[in-house]
Amino acid sequence: MKTVKKHGFTIHPVSTETNVSLPFVGTIKAGFPSPAQDYMGDTIDLNRLLIKNKASTFLAKTNGDSMIWENIENGDILLVDKSLEPHDGSTVVCFIDGEFTMKTVHINKDEILLVPANPNYPVIHITEENQFIIWGVVTYSIRKHI
Fold first, then answer.
1. What's residue 49's pLDDT?
2. CATH fold for the domain made of 4-16+36-142
3. Is the four-CA dihedral 76, 82, 86, 92 of positive or negative sign?
4. Is the pLDDT of residue 27 over 90?
5. Which residues have CB under 8 Å from 95's CB, separation 6+?
6. Cα–Cα distance measured from residue 91 to residue 105, given in angstroms and rounded to the nearest whole number
7. 102, 79 in Cβ contact below 8 A?
8. Cβ distance 115 to 123 under 8 Å?
9. Which residues, in sequence order, are bridge partners of residue 101?
């Protein structure tokens, strides 16, 4: 799969051909400091940690702020797995009426709703008239903090 631009959404394939093992230093407290522990012997391979289904996982870059209260911001890189079954409350990438969007999906017996995590955007009510497909479930959002 090659990089594809569709309807303002850039889709990138994932590559697991490389093995990038990084030192794992253990758990870092976000509260009060604790004595340092030496875990430098352990490593984590980010491909194994982040990608469960290589053939069905792709990367996409976010554009917009409709999911900001879910801590997904403009410019974040998303890992999206097309093999996962979405459930009520999943963050999903959808194709609706010729355009891609990312929202939280709410599924009940009567309707499907695509709910933004920003009150400045409307809830999308999916009807039989919509061309609609859930492309995949967002498994990770990656952002540079510095």
1. 80
2. Umud Fragment, subunit A (2.10.109)
3. positive
4. no
5. 131, 132, 133, 135
6. 6
7. no
8. yes
9. 94
Report residue 64 as tokens: 């917009």
- What is the Cα–Cα distance from 7 to 66, expressed in whole angstroms? 17
Least confident of 4-18, 61-75, 100-114: 4-18
Among all residues, which ones are annotated catalytic? 66, 103
Global pTM reads 0.75
Q: What are phi and psi of 4, to 5 degrees?
A: -130, 135
Task: Give the whole-angstrom CA distance, residue 2 versus residue 136.
Answer: 17
pLDDT tens-digit series, residues 56-103: 888 888 999 999 999 999 999 899 999 999 999 999 999 999 899 999
Please report where in the chains the tokens 């889709």 appear, as a residue. 11
User: What is the spatial distance between Cα 54 and Cα 57, in angstroms, rounded to a whole number?
Assistant: 5
